[in-house]
Amino acid sequence: MAVKTFVASEVLTSSDTNTYLANSGLVYIATGTGSSSASIPVNGCFSSTFDNYVVVASLTNSVNSQIRIKLRNGTTNKSANYYWGGFYFDMVGGGALNGEGSGGAVTTGVRVIAYNTNGVSNIVTQIGTPFTTTRTTFATQVQSTEPYFRIFNGLQDEAYSATGIDVIPDSGTISGTVVVYGYRKA
To answer: Does the global pTM surpass 0.90?
Structure first.
Protein backbone atom coordinates (compact mmCIF):
# COMPACT_ATOMS: atom_id res chain seq x y z
CA MET A 1 0.00 0.00 0.00
CA ALA A 2 1.34 3.40 -0.94
CA VAL A 3 1.86 5.87 1.88
CA LYS A 4 -0.82 8.53 1.91
CA THR A 5 0.32 12.13 2.35
CA PHE A 6 -1.98 14.28 4.44
CA VAL A 7 -2.18 18.03 3.92
CA ALA A 8 -3.21 20.82 6.29
CA SER A 9 -6.93 20.81 7.12
CA GLU A 10 -7.29 17.15 6.03
CA VAL A 11 -8.62 14.72 8.64
CA LEU A 12 -6.80 11.53 9.61
CA THR A 13 -9.63 9.03 9.95
CA SER A 14 -9.78 5.90 12.09
CA SER A 15 -9.94 3.89 8.85
CA ASP A 16 -6.65 5.41 7.64
CA THR A 17 -5.05 4.83 11.06
CA ASN A 18 -6.15 1.18 11.18
CA THR A 19 -4.92 0.59 7.62
CA TYR A 20 -1.45 2.00 8.35
CA LEU A 21 -1.14 0.16 11.65
CA ALA A 22 -2.12 -3.12 9.97
CA ASN A 23 0.50 -2.59 7.25
CA SER A 24 3.53 -2.24 9.51
CA GLY A 25 6.84 -3.79 8.44
CA LEU A 26 7.26 -6.45 11.15
CA VAL A 27 4.22 -8.22 12.53
CA TYR A 28 4.35 -9.96 15.91
CA ILE A 29 3.37 -13.63 15.62
CA ALA A 30 4.27 -15.67 18.70
CA THR A 31 6.45 -16.02 21.80
CA GLY A 32 8.02 -19.07 23.40
CA THR A 33 9.45 -18.98 26.93
CA GLY A 34 11.40 -21.39 29.05
CA SER A 35 12.95 -21.64 32.48
CA SER A 36 15.64 -24.30 32.91
CA SER A 37 14.13 -26.05 29.88
CA ALA A 38 15.51 -28.72 27.56
CA SER A 39 14.28 -26.55 24.66
CA ILE A 40 12.05 -23.58 23.86
CA PRO A 41 9.56 -24.42 21.10
CA VAL A 42 7.48 -21.84 19.23
CA ASN A 43 4.67 -23.73 17.50
CA GLY A 44 2.34 -22.46 14.79
CA CYS A 45 4.40 -19.38 13.94
CA PHE A 46 4.97 -20.08 10.20
CA SER A 47 2.21 -19.98 7.58
CA SER A 48 1.49 -18.77 4.07
CA THR A 49 0.79 -15.28 5.47
CA PHE A 50 4.53 -14.45 5.42
CA ASP A 51 7.54 -15.65 3.41
CA ASN A 52 10.28 -14.37 5.72
CA TYR A 53 10.57 -14.11 9.48
CA VAL A 54 12.82 -12.71 12.18
CA VAL A 55 13.41 -14.47 15.50
CA VAL A 56 14.61 -12.38 18.43
CA ALA A 57 15.79 -14.29 21.49
CA SER A 58 17.31 -13.48 24.83
CA LEU A 59 18.68 -16.64 26.47
CA THR A 60 20.83 -17.90 29.31
CA ASN A 61 22.33 -21.39 29.45
CA SER A 62 23.15 -23.60 32.44
CA VAL A 63 26.44 -24.83 30.91
CA ASN A 64 28.91 -23.85 28.19
CA SER A 65 27.19 -25.22 25.09
CA GLN A 66 26.05 -24.53 21.55
CA ILE A 67 22.44 -23.54 20.94
CA ARG A 68 20.69 -24.45 17.70
CA ILE A 69 17.40 -23.93 15.90
CA LYS A 70 15.47 -26.82 14.41
CA LEU A 71 12.46 -26.47 12.17
CA ARG A 72 9.33 -28.35 13.16
CA ASN A 73 5.93 -29.28 11.80
CA GLY A 74 3.38 -29.45 14.60
CA THR A 75 5.37 -30.73 17.56
CA THR A 76 7.81 -32.90 15.59
CA ASN A 77 11.30 -31.52 14.94
CA LYS A 78 13.01 -31.94 11.57
CA SER A 79 16.29 -33.73 12.26
CA ALA A 80 18.08 -33.97 8.92
CA ASN A 81 20.04 -32.01 6.33
CA TYR A 82 21.04 -28.88 8.25
CA TYR A 83 24.17 -26.97 7.22
CA TRP A 84 25.70 -23.99 8.96
CA GLY A 85 28.83 -21.88 8.88
CA GLY A 86 30.05 -18.69 10.42
CA PHE A 87 32.89 -16.72 11.88
CA TYR A 88 33.85 -14.92 15.04
CA PHE A 89 36.20 -12.15 15.98
CA ASP A 90 37.73 -11.66 19.44
CA MET A 91 36.87 -8.04 20.32
CA VAL A 92 39.35 -7.90 23.21
CA GLY A 93 42.29 -9.84 21.81
CA GLY A 94 41.83 -8.75 18.20
CA GLY A 95 43.44 -10.83 15.55
CA ALA A 96 42.04 -12.67 12.57
CA LEU A 97 38.56 -13.86 11.80
CA ASN A 98 38.02 -17.45 12.86
CA GLY A 99 35.76 -19.64 10.74
CA GLU A 100 33.58 -22.53 11.87
CA GLY A 101 31.10 -24.78 10.12
CA SER A 102 29.01 -27.92 10.24
CA GLY A 103 31.35 -29.79 7.90
CA GLY A 104 28.42 -31.19 5.92
CA ALA A 105 24.83 -32.15 6.64
CA VAL A 106 24.00 -32.50 10.34
CA THR A 107 20.92 -33.59 12.29
CA THR A 108 21.40 -31.22 15.23
CA GLY A 109 19.96 -28.07 13.60
CA VAL A 110 21.40 -24.73 12.57
CA ARG A 111 23.84 -23.31 15.10
CA VAL A 112 22.92 -19.83 16.34
CA ILE A 113 25.12 -19.46 19.44
CA ALA A 114 28.52 -20.51 20.63
CA TYR A 115 27.61 -20.13 24.26
CA ASN A 116 29.18 -19.66 27.63
CA THR A 117 27.52 -19.28 31.03
CA ASN A 118 28.69 -15.71 31.70
CA GLY A 119 25.28 -14.14 31.08
CA VAL A 120 22.58 -13.44 28.54
CA SER A 121 22.96 -13.98 24.81
CA ASN A 122 20.90 -11.86 22.44
CA ILE A 123 20.14 -13.40 19.06
CA VAL A 124 18.56 -12.06 15.88
CA THR A 125 17.92 -14.72 13.23
CA GLN A 126 16.28 -14.13 9.89
CA ILE A 127 14.54 -17.23 8.49
CA GLY A 128 13.64 -17.38 4.80
CA THR A 129 10.74 -19.43 3.38
CA PRO A 130 10.24 -21.97 6.18
CA PHE A 131 6.61 -22.71 5.31
CA THR A 132 7.13 -23.33 1.59
CA THR A 133 8.47 -26.70 0.51
CA THR A 134 11.82 -25.28 -0.57
CA ARG A 135 15.20 -24.79 1.06
CA THR A 136 14.94 -22.74 4.28
CA THR A 137 17.71 -20.24 5.00
CA PHE A 138 18.98 -18.77 8.26
CA ALA A 139 21.12 -15.69 8.96
CA THR A 140 22.07 -14.99 12.58
CA GLN A 141 23.89 -12.27 14.46
CA VAL A 142 24.50 -13.00 18.14
CA GLN A 143 26.06 -11.10 20.99
CA SER A 144 26.63 -12.54 24.41
CA THR A 145 28.67 -11.44 27.38
CA GLU A 146 31.68 -13.24 25.92
CA PRO A 147 33.95 -10.81 24.04
CA TYR A 148 33.30 -12.28 20.58
CA PHE A 149 31.39 -10.90 17.62
CA ARG A 150 29.69 -13.84 15.84
CA ILE A 151 27.76 -14.31 12.58
CA PHE A 152 26.17 -17.61 11.49
CA ASN A 153 24.41 -18.60 8.26
CA GLY A 154 22.71 -21.88 7.56
CA LEU A 155 20.07 -23.82 5.71
CA GLN A 156 17.80 -26.82 5.92
CA ASP A 157 18.25 -28.40 2.52
CA GLU A 158 15.02 -30.34 1.95
CA ALA A 159 11.53 -29.90 0.55
CA TYR A 160 9.98 -29.41 4.00
CA SER A 161 7.15 -27.20 5.23
CA ALA A 162 7.76 -25.99 8.78
CA THR A 163 5.08 -24.54 11.04
CA GLY A 164 7.42 -23.69 13.93
CA ILE A 165 10.88 -23.81 15.47
CA ASP A 166 12.56 -25.36 18.49
CA VAL A 167 15.54 -23.66 20.17
CA ILE A 168 17.71 -26.38 21.69
CA PRO A 169 21.01 -26.42 23.62
CA ASP A 170 23.53 -29.17 22.85
CA SER A 171 23.73 -29.78 26.61
CA GLY A 172 22.33 -28.30 29.79
CA THR A 173 19.17 -26.25 29.92
CA ILE A 174 18.15 -22.81 28.64
CA SER A 175 16.00 -20.03 30.05
CA GLY A 176 14.59 -17.01 28.28
CA THR A 177 12.27 -15.76 25.60
CA VAL A 178 12.05 -16.44 21.85
CA VAL A 179 9.84 -14.05 19.84
CA VAL A 180 8.87 -14.58 16.17
CA TYR A 181 7.87 -11.75 13.82
CA GLY A 182 6.79 -11.93 10.17
CA TYR A 183 8.00 -9.54 7.48
CA ARG A 184 4.87 -8.07 5.93
CA LYS A 185 4.46 -8.70 2.22
CA ALA A 186 4.04 -5.56 0.09
So the answer is: no
